[in-house]
Design goal:
337 residues, alpha/beta, 4-stranded mixed β-sheet, 3-stranded antiparallel β-sheet
């Protein structure tokens, strides 16, 4: 699969996504926390550490966006439907079709391609509402999503024209929001890996092997999903794997570290090194140990990266490894707090 990385946020997706989040932030947050817990990740801790920027991002947008009337069909709390709608709409947007020139055949053509992964069989753009109904009934969508999609299919041109108009009316609100959050958003974008996960690559190859653009999204930071010509990569999607790996490593590492710290002499050596580095004989004298015993303790601390060594004036000085200690404290927080 050929992929072209566009290292920026997609304005169409971010604008409509921010409207959805403005209407449903607390509910979406609760869904995210539940999903994280299902993955054996401390949801509250992960949210505080990585996702708290969302609240300011949404709040700033809320101050300037405009929605003339309630649009519960588009923005009612159903993330599954909204993302499906958004994926189809973004395909139409990328095709540069003017809203006033949208046709039912164009919309159904995109939907047909997109729904291949729902086992559409011989479904074509000319199929009847009954055919679409049968397709959706056999899909894995929730009942609410099925009925919303049927309502969309019943009057597709009007619905998508209305959605495009909402985007047009709120482009300026997104531009303002981006500028006010620019520093943090650009930092997130810059740190997002330029490689897709194996899972998303395999899915793309199976369902939509055509060349694709890869856009980043900050409004849905943990998601990766595919349309026929686009892959959207959440700016924090890679953090889920890293968090789980770090947590596993921490759980494996901490028992050994606790065993080391449980030894009175090793603990006192680390306390002694807090102020400044010392060579082996100094450590032995201050803690009333034999040089051989002190050397044994230092070897254990060194092999567990608790100390570092520096040669100076013909002697080997031991220094406290601040980086390891910070990692240990971080591990405690991830596991217990």
């Amino acid at each position: 699969m050929e992929a072209k990385y566009v290292r920026k946020l997609h304005p169409f997706l971010e604008t409509l996504g921010l409207i959805y989040m403005t209407k449903n932030l607390e509910a979406v947050k609760a869904d995210m926390l539940d999903s994280l817990e299902e993955m054996n990740i401390d949801g509250a801790q992960f949210y505080r550490q990585h996702l708290s920027y969302l609240e300011n991002y949404v709040q700033v947008f809320e101050e300037s966006y405009s929605l003339t009337e309630e649009k519960s069909f588009f923005f009612g709390h159903n993330t599954e439907f909204f993302l499906t709608l958004l994926a189809i709409a973004t395909e139409l947007f990328e095709a540069e079709i003017e809203p006033e020139h949208l046709s039912q055949q164009q919309i159904f053509s995109v939907m047909t391609t997109f729904l291949k992964k729902e086992k559409s069989g011989n479904l074509s753009a000319s199929n009847t509402l009954e055919d679409w109904f049968l397709l959706l009934q056999s899909s894995e969508y929730s009942e609410d999503t099925k009925w919303r999609l049927l309502e969309l299919i019943n009057n597709p041109v009007k619905k998508f024209q209305e959605l495009f108009e909402i985007y047009t009316n709120n482009r300026a609100a997104f531009a303002t929001t981006f500028q006010k959050n620019k520093k943090h958003l650009e930092k997130l974008v810059s740190k997002t890996p330029s490689e897709l996960s194996d899972v998303i690559c395999n899915l793309a190859s199976e369902f939509h092997p055509e060349p694709k653009k890869v856009y980043l999204t900050a409004v849905f930071p943990l998601m990766e999903w595919i349309t026929p010509t686009i892959i959207f990569q959440g700016v924090l999607a890679d953090k889920l794997d890293l968090y789980q790996k770090n947590l596993k490593n921490a759980k494996e590492m901490l028992p050994q570290i606790l065993k080391l710290l449980g030894d009175k002499s090793k603990f006192e050596i680390l306390c002694l090194l807090k102020s400044h580095g010392r060579y082996n004989l100094e450590i032995a004298e201050e803690l009333q140990l034999t040089p051989a015993t002190a050397s044994h303790h230092m070897s254990m601390l060194l092999s567990n990266h608790m100390v570092t060594v520096e040669k100076k004036d013909g002697r080997v000085y031991y220094q406290l490894n601040q980086e390891t200690l910070r990692e240990i404290i971080k591990c405690f927080g991830e596991i217990f707090l």
